[in-house]
Amino acid sequence: GFSRQMVEILARHGVAFSSFDVFSDEQVRQGLKALSGWPTYPQLYVAGELLGGLDIVKELEASGELDTICPKAQKLEDRLKSLINKAPVMLFMKGSKQVAKCGFSKQIIEIMNNTGVDYETFDILEDEEVRQGLKSFSNWPTYPQLYVNGDLVGGLDIVKELKESGELLPVLKGEN
C-alpha cells in the first residue's frame, strides 16, 4: 500500500523514476536499510541521495516542494521531437541498419544504403511508446518512417517513388 501511494504521487507529479523490488533481493533489502539509516520502505532517492519515505514525500507534495526537487519525465511529444531530430536523416523501422526485422524495413535499408547518405535508425520494436506515439504524432500509420531535418518524408512507397523520379538524393540532402 505504501509503495502504491508513493508511485501514485510520483506519477501524479510527472516525476521520472524507476523502481527496484526490495522483496526480490533480501541482501539489498537489508543492506539499503543499513546504508540509508532508514528502516522502512518505500525509500525515495533523488540524484543518489535519500529524500525519505512516504510521509516525507507527502509533506513535500503538500508544501509544493516535490515539484522543485524531483526530475520530470520527458513528455512523449518532446521525446519524439528529440528522436526525430537525433540525426539529419532519421529512419524509424523494425530492426536496425544491421538487421532489418521485416520486409519493408529491409527494402528501405537497401535503398538508403545505396544513396551513400549517412543516416541513423530507431528500432520501434524496442519501444512501444515511441512506436504508437509516432504514428499519431506524424499522422502516418505505418513503418518504416523516414525523416529529414525533422520533417516526415514518408514510408517505403514514398521513398521508392522519390528514388524512381531521381528526387531521393536531393531530399535526403535537404535540398528539396
Automatic annotation (TrEMBL):
GO terms for cellular component: cytosol; nucleus. Residues 1-50, 89-153 form the Glutaredoxin domain. The keyword Iron-sulfur applies. GO terms for molecular function: iron-sulfur cluster binding; metal ion binding. Keywords: Iron, Iron-sulfur, Metal-binding. GO terms for biological process: intracellular iron ion homeostasis. InterPro entries: Glutaredoxin, GRX_PICOT-like, Monothiol_GRX-rel, Thioredoxin-like_sf. It holds the Pfam family Glutaredoxin. This is GLRX3 protein.
